[in-house]
Amino acid sequence: MSRCFISKFRLVWLLPVIIFAGCESVPPPPPVPYTGDPVVDGNAHLAVAPVRDRALWEYRIAASALRRGLYDEAKTKLDDALAVAAANYGQVNSEAAKSRRMFRNESDKPFIGEPYERVMASYYRGILYWRDGEPDNARALFRSGELLDSDTEDKTYAGDYILLDYLDGLASAKLGGDGADGLARARANAKQQGRAIPPDYNSKANVMLFVEYGHGPRKYSGGEYGELLKFFTEQSKIRSARLEVEGRRIALPPYDDINFQATTRGGRLMDHVLGNKAVFKQTTDTVGDVALVGAMAAANHGGRDADRAALGLAAVGLISKIASSATTPQADIRTWENLPQYLSFSALLLAPGDHPATLEFLDTNGQVVQNLTQRFTITVPPAESGIGAKAPDVVVFCSETKD
Question: pLDDT tens digits for 239-268?
């Protein structure tokens, strides 16, 4: 058997290594029975989900629980998810560190979400704190959300959520402080984005109405290697809402757009690209092709020196092809998919007692979508006895979003 034949044989024998290098078999999770209740089904999925997906399922369950008035469930899930995100943001644990290497999938890291997802977790938790009579803790969560939406490394982008700044200032005003800065930032953001300007604060308001509608963004991958993280956004047919109570009609315009927040930073459109991995994969793949072609050419010339050169080039080519095959530049497209598109808010002053209310959602033509109308009663407790005592604010949360 000639050396030339041996070299060619080794090249052919190693081809399966090139093809299958980097592959890893992961057993599928056990099947979960479907009940149609997103909280029940979400908890069933959470029970069998890998640890890296825990926060994702908790985000999803929390949103569903909040919409159904399961406030304790929502708080528990958000507290745990926020703790996981905080532990893995910036200073990642060993599993997250592995995913940043060339040969691990991005989806192997613990899920913490894109900035807009982490902001929404803080926003929802802030609402629940306010509901529990803790506007100071609510303010801390709203401020945390603005920080999460900012670029803390080079300060290129600052948080531009309208409601987070507005609620920050309102909480300060109700706590006896000065909320002027928060109001000014909220109005500047609204003007920049061409949205409704939020009203002046009424520190005596005792009903906090949070409303959301539309469907938020979903992720998908693009590019030659799936290295582009892209977003599918669908414009909601609902463009505004309004509340009728005590003979008054209160407008609820879309202050914040989560689709806008997902696809921009500081108002600028952005591309999510796992560039380093994509370039590495392309380069090593090309080097491997060139080296293997050179090896075959050298082997065909015959002779000891040619065989040595062929083996050397083959080794380089195989290593490069294996590295390219094992590199995983795919974007992480795990999505908190039951988020809304629009966020709205209004602070009301109502007398103690029961107040029948009607919430209507309006389409692009300003027409009421009848099948979405919600009717409920806002109950304001009497003021507490004692000098300076007052009842905590009533927090009402309404969602048009379907899970």
Answer: 999 999 999 999 999 999 999 999 886 555
Angle of helix 54-67 relative to helix 71-88, nearest 10 degrees, comes to 150
Q: Quick one: tokens of 394? A: 């009533």
- Cα separation, 403 vs 400, in Å, equals 10
Provide the whole-model pTM: 0.78
Q: Assign residue 74 a region: left if phi > 0, alpha if psi is -120 to 50, beta otherwise?
A: alpha
Residues 228, 194, 255, 336, Cα dihedral to 10°: -10
Share of the chain above pLDDT 90, in %: 57
Q: pLDDT tens digit string along 267-287?
A: 555 555 434 433 434 444 554
